[in-house]
Design a protein that fits this description.
Blueprint: H1 12-24, H2 33-50, E1 60-61, H3 67-71, H4 76-81, H5 83-96, H6 112-118, E2 123-126, E3 129-130, E4 138-139, H7 150-155, H8 157-169, H9 189-193, H10 199-231, H11 245-265, H12 267-289, E5 296-301, H13 311-330, E6 335-343, H14 348-351, E7 360-365, H15 368-375, E8 380-385, H16 387-392, H17 395-409, E9 415-419, H18 428-441
Parallel strand pairs: 1-9, 2-3, 5-6, 6-7, 7-8, 8-9
Antiparallel strand pairs: 2-4
Length: 444
Amino acid sequence: MDTVKKWEELSWQEKREERFKRWLSQDIKFVTPQAEKMYKERVTRFIKAIKLEEGDRVPVMLPAAFYPAHYSGYTLKDVMYDYDALKKSWLKFMNEFGDMDSFGGPGLVFPGRVVDMIDYKLMKWPGHGLADDCPSYQFVEGEYMPPEEYDDLIRDPADYLMRYFLPRSVGALAPWSKLGPITAFVGIPVWYITQFSDPDIRKSYQTLLEAALECNKWMEAVMEVSQAALEAGYPSIWGGMNGAPYDFIGDMLRGTMGIMMDMFKRPDKLQKAMERLVPIAINETVSAADNLSCPIIFMPLHKGTGGFMSNEQFKTFYWPTFKEVMMGLINEGLVPIPFAEGDYEPRLEIIKDMPRSSVVWYFERMDMAKAKKVLGDNACIAGNVPVSVLCTGTPQEVKEHCKRLIETCAKGGGYILTGSAGVEEGNPDNLRAMMEVAKQYGTY
């Protein structure tokens, strides 16, 4: 008699198969039987690529980013502050690019009113530090954690983020620096509650509640678009987001210069802090992914690129905890897609140290022939039509790049055609050209 295994008894491959089944057969009210057929074909195309198998053809991830706004005649500022314009833009793009293998909703178009209300300091956006017609955001890096506070972060990351980092990075939450420790040893709630009578803290929480209500309005628009895409037969390839512990500390807390100095001045503190963050990163992502059907986890990588550190430093400071995070996700049946921003060619021999067919490596700058040679038998690879060509080139130039990539990377399976990064502006026929080439030359 067969017995049903508990989830924790399954291998990572078995868990992944269960997640793939869920992705493939989720409960969707498709608009037509054809939409259902196309949905399953598209998901199957990605699954086969991930598993290093030849499907019907090479799958394509259109690098549309904020492009739907531009395509519909709006600026990024328009759609950040007008949720109706946001919906119209993404639905128009979806309806007029009908050959897409997947569709990325507007979840990364942050609600302008919310970031205004909370006085978010880690980013500039159109109309707030950038020109109204700027097509993207700009990250504002700084030293939000002085080196003397490593021990505070290591001791209690949640407490540190709430009482130190958030008050420094979110203006509306500056009064939270007055709060006592979040993890209270003496669990008598009235003593903890009394601090919220402080007028500044009360005001900060009121702002947070108002921002939450505004967030709900934005989320309704995002979810309406996402649901419409699924019903039309376009799968999402977004099941969550994560990253490398080194990047979290370098991006959000110490800054590039700070964390580079830490590798020399306080390597033990840096290592302990990264190790402390590993289980938090894994648990947060798995919990979020369990509520979604897509098992793919996007992981943008920032500070591990060539030129930022040597291979020895990468192997010592960046790779171990990042690999541990990825393995934590893989062991729960999820599929990490590290977006290797910058030059990862020096890292190829290091990053191939992963279970076969467990990861999709998405490259920005890369000799894709070399990547196929080193990783082709081990991992699916994705990339890397230059954004410069997609934005300013001709459709024919785009087709030539795509054709070369398919000829170089597609044989044997394990390749996803996409851009080197997201596109915000340019000729829509250049994006259509990517799909045309995949259909014409990407069949197996």
